[in-house]
Amino acid sequence: MKMIRAILRPETAESVAESLADAGFVSMTQIHVFGRGKQKGITVGTIHYEELPKTMILMVVEDKNVDHVIALIKDGAYTGNFGDGKVFVSPVEEAYTVRTGTKGL
Amino acid sequence: MKEIIAIIRPKKVGATRDAFEQLGFPSMTATAVTGRGLQRGISGEVNVQYAPAALAKSISGGMKYVPKRLISIIVPDADVDVVVKTIIEVNQTAQIGDGKIFVCPIDDALRVRTGEQSESAIL
C-alpha cells in the first residue's frame, strides 16, 4: 500500500476529489494547509504572501493503483501556472478498519 | 520506529488519548481534518438539525465530507500491535465511520531540545 499526499489549489481539489470518486477511489481525507514552493510565496503588487492556502488530499491506495491515481490528480489539478501543487507517495505497511478490526483497506 | 496514523471520530479523541497515556505513550499530534470513506460521506454524524428545504435541495441528503481527527503517534516497532489494538478497542462503536489506521515506517527522529536521535528521541 502507498499513501498519496497531494497538495493542490483549494479550487481544484474538489474536482480532483470528484474525478477520483468516479474512478472508484472514494475514500480520502482533506486537510487545509498553508505552504509555499520554490517561488517563495507570491507577490501581488506591493504585498508579498509568504504562505499560500492549499488543500492536502491524503489517501491510501494499493500499489497497483498508484499510477492511475497520480494520473487522475495530474489531470484534474493542472493549470500550467506556478502553484499547481505537489504529489508525494510514501509507503504504508499496514491498514486497519476500526469498526471491524480487519486488516487491509 | 513506526508512525501510526489514525483517523477517528472527534469525540473519541479524549478517550484515545487517555488510553495512550495508560500504555505509556503520552505524546501525539492531532489535526482537524475532513474526509470520507467507502460510504461517500454519511449523514447523522453530527447533531445538527437540517432544514427540510435544504435537505430536499441537496443531492445525497447527507454531507460530502465528515469532520474527523487525524492522530499521529510514533512508537517503537515492538509496540505497534498493542497501540493499534488499543485504538481499535477504544474507537469501536459498530457504526459506519469509526475510522482507519495506517502504519508507516519512520527512518529517524530528532528531539530538538537535546539533539537526541532515533528511539531515545520518542521515548
Which structural traits does this protein have?
heterodimer, A: 105 residues, alpha+beta, Alpha-Beta Plaits, four-stranded antiparallel sheet, two-stranded antiparallel sheet, 24% helix, B: 123 residues, 4 strands
The stretches of 5 or more residues of chain B where confidence is low (pLDDT under 50) are none
Measured by DSSP, the beta-strand proportion of chain A falls in: 35-45%
Mean pLDDT of chain A: 92
Number of strands of chain B: 4
Largest interface: A-B, 22 and 34 residues
User: In whole angstroms, how far apart are the ends of chain A?
Assistant: 9 Å
Spans of chain A of at least 5 consecutive residues whose pLDDT stays below 50 are none
Percent of residues in beta strands of chain B: 25-35%
Radius of gyration from the alpha-carbon trace of chain A, in angstroms:
16 Å
Tell me the radius of gyration of chain B. 18 Å
Distance between the amino and carboxyl termini of chain B: 11 Å
**What's the CATH topology label of chain A?**
Alpha-Beta Plaits
Overall morphology of chain A: elongated
Number of strands of chain A: 7
| CATH class term of chain B | Alpha Beta
**Main sheet makeup of chain B:** 4 strands, antiparallel
Quick overview:
By secondary structure, chain A is of the alpha+beta class. Helices cover 24% and strands 40% of the residues of chain A. Chain B has 123 residues and is of the alpha+beta class.
